[in-house]
Amino acid sequence: MSIFDLAGSDSVIPDTRCSRKGCRNAASWQLLWNNPKIHTPERRKIWLACEDHRTWLEEYLQTRGLWKETLELGELPAGPGNLPAGRDH
């Protein structure tokens, strides 16, 4: 028996939850971003977003000049150096 057996069939794998602080919803979107002060131009960090928080997270990143692209969760971002970011927000 594993911990996944105890979680039930409708559980969300932790790595696919929305990155918005306190949100436990399943993510549907990946928001690609980078901080040009510390990342090379081709580098993309990834926040995951549920339907409820996609707009909020996009606006947060856009306001700071960090947002690059939003893709559906199943799409693979192009390029090397793409890392999932932590649950910062």
Structure description:
This protein has 89 residues and is an alpha+beta fold. It has one domain. Helices cover 17% and strands 22% of the residues. The protein contains two helices and four strands. A four-stranded mixed β-sheet has the order 3-1-2-4, with helices on one face. The radius of gyration is 14 Å and the shape is globular. The N and C termini lie far apart (33 Å). The N terminus is likely disordered.
Architecture blueprint of SSEs:
Blueprint (H helix, E strand, L loop, with lengths): L2 H5 L21 E5 L10 E6 L4 H10 L3 E6 L9 E3 L5
Question: Can you tag this structure with a few keywords?
Answer:
89 residues; alpha+beta; 4-stranded mixed beta sheet; 17% helix; 22% strand
* Alpha-carbon distance between the two ends: 33 Å
Q: List low-confidence stretches.
A: 1-9
Number of DSSP E strands:
4
Strand content: 15-25%
H/E element string?
HEEHEE
* Helicity level: 10-25%
> Main beta sheet, described?
4 strands, mixed
Alpha-carbon Rg, integer: 14 Å
Mean pLDDT: 81
Structural class: alpha+beta
